Amino acid sequence: MEPTLRARDVVLVQRIGRAPRLGEVISVAGSAHRVIAVDLWGRYWHCGDNSQTPSGRRSPELTTDLVVDVLRDGRWLGAPPRLLSWSILQPERILRQSARLGFRALRRQHLASVLLHGLHTTVVDSLIPWVERLGLMGVSAQPPKGLATRLTAVVKTFERPQAVARLIASLRAIAPGLPVVVVDDSEHPVDIPGVTQLRLPYDSGIGVGRNAGVRAVKTPYLLMLDDDLVMSAATDLGRAVRFLDQHRQADLVGGRWLTLPRCRWEGDLVAEGSATCVGAIDELPVVTKTANFFVARTSVVRTVGWDEALKRVEHADFFIRARGRLTAVYDAGLACYHCPTPFLRRYQAKRSDTRFDLALLAWKQQHGSGGAQSMLVPSRRRRKQRARRKPRRLKV
């Protein structure tokens, strides 16, 4: 028997699409509820303290298909069995931990993540000038002439407006006038002046964003970047372009980065064991994979492209499909800073949800690229099996 919502019920709702903000009045199963807390993982929110919708303000409607559980008088009632028939998450552990922590603890956790993120950003921003003075990145490179007509930077960003603004500022410092294409699928994209900005639907995925950015490039070469990278005064982009001009057999020049605040070099995937060296071109090793910081020929990258079914872990799939179609070299002299955001709670919640992407990647490696479509579009037999399958129920 389905539980009927009451005025003082606290409803745990699965997050699909846009997540409501704290204090916003929404409609759940026909009754108005005010959002009073957000879960630690960003996948669920709590709605309770029944309130009337203000006059003249329309509240977004949430269907009962999103209700996961109901808390009434300190006891979990459980959700209707049919509402959990297709859930691929593990809400049982989240429910128990949410009930144990309580709403006040959730607010403290949220405040702690905001403070830690601010402290981490301050430390990283203060470290960059000291690293530049010590010369750990190398000798400062002169801004190349005519680079703006031959190279375009492509940046895919998601829920990190401060990070992408810092990256754009560093690009303008080392290469004034360089065309920049920013692909943003955040919930609330921020305007960035002086760049070509492409806004996609919320959480479209990295594969969709990179393909859209590459299609917007009009120069023969492109610079692929993540939004948490920062260019150094020693980042010599003209060096990679000259190498590709002189060696037509090479299609991509990958670099490395210095991760802050740990001050640790990363990006040499051969030394890290995730790539192999298969030759050399003018003393630069030919590798099977590079870090996601590279200069490449636009036409070749556009031919390979990214699988738009993968929202994350798309980097390995790109180089697997590029074998035999793209020749990549690794240049340790092409370097930048990597400034990750481990305390950005909402971003990390999305970034760590890779179960579907890993399953799809394993399927593709087993059945080939064509297997991805058969996995995304179930066969008639598989659809019948799902229809006969009993819905899962939570144990509370």
Task: Provide structural commentary.
This protein has 396 residues and is α+β, with helices and mostly antiparallel strands. It folds into 2 domains: 10-105, no CATH class; 135-348, Spore Coat Polysaccharide Biosynthesis Protein SpsA, Chain A, CATH 3.90.550. It has 11 helices and 18 strands. It has helices at 91-134, 161-174, 206-215, 237-246, 269-272, 298-304, 314-321, 345-351, 355-367, 371-376, 380-388, and strands at 10-14, 25-28, 31-38, 44-48, 61-62, 67-72, 75-76, 151-157, 180-184, 196-199, 221-226, 229-230, 252-259, 264-266, 277-281, 284-287, 294-297, 328-338. Strands 8, 9, 10, 11, 12, 13, 14, 15, 16, 17 and 18 form an 11-stranded mixed β-sheet that branches. A hairpin with a 4-residue loop joins β13 and β14. The longest helix has 44 residues, at 91-134. The two termini are 16 Å apart.
